[in-house]
Amino acid sequence: MYLFKQLTTLSILLITVLSLSIPGIATAQDAKVVEIKGTDQLKFTKTEITAAPGQEITVKLTTVSKLPPSAMSHNFLLLTSSVDATKVAQESAKFQDNQYIAPKYEDQIIAHTDMAGGGETVTVTFTAPEEPGDYEYICTFPGHYLGGMKGTLTVKE
Ligand SMILES: [Cu+2]
């Protein structure tokens, strides 16, 4: 009986240690939080994000700027791999009333935030694509993508 109790305690201990050491088991329910700043130099401070297929991700984008929102705002817009980011950026520049997002590309957008002016933070939670590969994210405020405001989400097992 004493030995049995000892064995049970040992198994519980082992299971606890195992679940702590395998990433994903203990935290499968929690979204991965990625904090990014958008700067006056038209850059995302984080240009590479990695995720597992289907992983839940929360992006928090903060615009760091003293300029008025009409002159300097940023968003985060994640694209499917089948669309030309330059075209999305150029078309979207015409749609100020729609958060600078061209409606014709809405099917090609995996996730996006609203625009954030200086000092503001915008958030979006989404599920990473199941298909491994590179997915581009961009800012669609006019001129920002061409100015280099982009990054890559890499989905891999
Ligand atoms: Cu921007």
TrEMBL record:
<dbReference type="InterPro" id="IPR033138">
    <property type="entry name" value="Cu_oxidase_CS"/>
</dbReference>
<dbReference type="InterPro" id="IPR000923">
    <property type="entry name" value="BlueCu_1"/>
</dbReference>
<dbReference type="InterPro" id="IPR050845">
    <property type="entry name" value="Cu-binding_ET"/>
</dbReference>
<keyword id="KW-0732">Signal</keyword>
<dbReference type="Pfam" id="PF00127">
    <property type="entry name" value="Copper-bind"/>
</dbReference>
<keyword id="KW-0249">Electron transport</keyword>
<dbReference type="GO" id="GO:0005507">
    <property type="term" value="F:copper ion binding"/>
</dbReference>
<feature type="domain" description="Blue (type 1) copper">
    <location>
        <begin position="34"/>
        <end position="156"/>
    </location>
</feature>
<protein>
    <submittedName>
        <fullName>Azurin</fullName>
    </submittedName>
</protein>
<keyword id="KW-0813">Transport</keyword>
<keyword id="KW-0479">Metal-binding</keyword>
<feature type="signal peptide">
    <location>
        <begin position="1"/>
        <end position="28"/>
    </location>
</feature>
<dbReference type="InterPro" id="IPR008972">
    <property type="entry name" value="Cupredoxin"/>
</dbReference>
<keyword id="KW-0186">Copper</keyword>
<dbReference type="GO" id="GO:0009055">
    <property type="term" value="F:electron transfer activity"/>
</dbReference>
<dbReference type="InterPro" id="IPR028871">
    <property type="entry name" value="BlueCu_1_BS"/>
</dbReference>
